[in-house]
Specification:
Layout: H1 2-33, E1 38-44, E2 50-56, H2 80-87, H3 95-101, E3 105-107, E4 134-136, H4 138-142, H5 146-149, H6 156-177, H7 181-196, H8 198-212, H9 216-222, E5 239-242, E6 251-254, H10 256-266
Helix pairs in contact: 1-3, 7-8, 8-9
Length: about 270
Amino acid sequence: MVFRVLDFLLAALGLIVLSPLLLVAILAIWLQDFHSPFYIAERVGRSNRPFRMVKLRSMTIGADKTGVTSTSAGDSRITIVGKIVRKLKLDEVPQFWNVLMGSMSLIGPRPNVVKWGVELYTDEEMRLLSIPPGVSDFSSIVFSDEGQILKDAEDPDLEYNRIIRPWKSRLSLAYVDNRSVRLYVVLIILTVVSAVSRPKALAWIQAELKRIGVDDELVRVAGREDPLVAHPPPGSNEIYSQTDGRDDSNVSITSPQHQAEVARESV
């Protein structure tokens, strides 16, 4: 009940404060192609229940029909106005409405799609659905540059599942396992701080992760000082790999041990 009261009050305040910017963004998106400035995205919420998440539309009409669920910074589907809206994170503001309606929380694991999303979750990752999905959390701040990471990826979905998803899921599970009003408030503050100084926000996140006792590897990744490497998702010992980003029949899993053997044989 405490989380619900905080969500409602802070989401209402956020919509009021940000309404001038939101109205400008809505008008700019509409004037660009005279289509709805809103995008209603099907997502999976708490207890694996689907819900409709509201966002400002940053892509061309029909962009979701391409089958690609991960978006890189160079994605041709992103409109000119959409690039600005994404950079300022204004596309996420309408999700405050979802928070008011109770389908989301301000802080929690980011809601995922079913196809190439929740359907790939391990049993451990399914615990992400034990609490309401959120507008922000550890992973949202640490990987706020997700589009840039995937910018040069030949298959953004594949690259996402190999080098981003494993760490995002671990960070989100760290919140699920240590959820408290204190951490909720800290993450709201950190979300605001990250808009001003991402390095300071990341350093603070590392301190919080150490405080709640996560492993050193995850703390190091949260600092984002080292290049991201492929890693198994939580609950698995195998790195996700698929030869064809759209064909289930071509999905394969490659273990770190097998990769090492292949590397040795190629030398």
